[in-house]
Write a structure and sequence with these properties.
This protein has helices spanning 4-13, 17-32, 72-99, 105-130, 144-151, 156-184, 188-218, 223-234, 246-251, 256-263, and strands spanning 58-59, 141-142. It has 265 residues and is mainly α.
Length: 265
């Protein structure tokens, strides 16, 4: 296999976790060696057919048990939740490049990089989780993340707004606080992992901003108004709640006007 869309299809429509991680690494290595093809060779399969492993059990967020971070069970739940976010992020990156065709080759290279880095994040968290006597899949996880992908499969602009420029950007808002909490429990490895994720996520959100603006230019749309449109459309006419990491968001492609609008509650 040496075609990026074949790799994407395998990662999305097969369930084995370790195979998914291996394929994400292999595709990135082939690209680095100059041996990865970006030629379109088929039409994307329906997003409804994407396959997830049998475990973890997926629950609505309101049914997820709440645990204190100060206990071993709380730490297990925290890292399991984080592992799930990063695992679904692998799917989100692969689906971004698989679902939307006819874009510049650099678009596919950027989201391949995201898929590769998300797979590394998942592996790091999974390894740390195992030191807490738990593996990914041993606890339930929330099902809401992937729904954002299925809701936006109709438009690359909608997808870019909701995934990198909303969901991943939210990670930039909350991760510094998470690192502070983990540091209080002397979890140095956890802080190291979260720091790596935080730095990579800046790049991912920046990719989202770049390609969102590029597509707005191509389609002759006002980028700030288009951002507001899709955000309100997919969040039932409500803005995401802050607080926002405004200084970092401005570094990764948000405009002063976008941030002023978000912060105006």
């Amino acid at each position: 296999m040496n075609n990026i869309f074949d790799f994407a299809k395998a990662c999305l429509y097969r369930v084995d976790i370790d195979e998914k991680l291996a394929l994400s690494k292999q595709a990135w290595q082939l690209y680095q060696q100059g041996n990865l093809s970006f030629a379109e060779n088929d039409e994307p399969e329906a997003i409804s057919k994407v396959q997830f492993p049998a475990q973890p059990e997926l629950l609505a967020p309101r049914f997820m048990p709440r645990r204190s971070l100060g206990s071993k069970e709380g730490m297990q739940a925290f890292y399991h939740s984080l592992a799930h976010i990063e695992f679904v992020a692998i799917y989100l990156a692969w689906d971004m490049l698989y679902r939307f065709r006819g874009l510049p080759e650099q678009f596919y290279i950027d989201w391949l990089q995201v898929a590769y880095e998300e797979s590394l994040h998942f592996e790091m968290i999974r390894e740390h989780l195992r030191t807490l006597d738990l593996d990914y899949g041993d606890l339930p996880a929330h099902q809401g993340l992937w729904e954002h992908a299925t809701d936006t499969d109709y438009s690359v602009l909608a997808r870019l707004v909701i995934i990198p420029r909303c969901m991943e950007a939210r990670g930039l808002d909350v991760t510094p606080t998470m690192m502070e909490k983990i540091a209080k429990f002397k979890d140095e490895k956890g802080v190291e992992i979260l720091t790596r994720i935080y730095e990579d996520e800046k790049t991912h959100v920046n990719f989202g901003s770049h390609w969102f603006n590029q597509q707005c230019d191509v389609q002759q749309l006002d980028s700030e108004e288009t951002f507001k449109h899709y955000l309100l459309k997919h969040f039932h006419q409500r803005k995401p709640k802050g607080p926002f990491n405004t200084a970092v968001r401005l570094q990764v492609g948000f405009t002063e006007n976008e941030m002023a609008w978000l912060e105006e509650q």
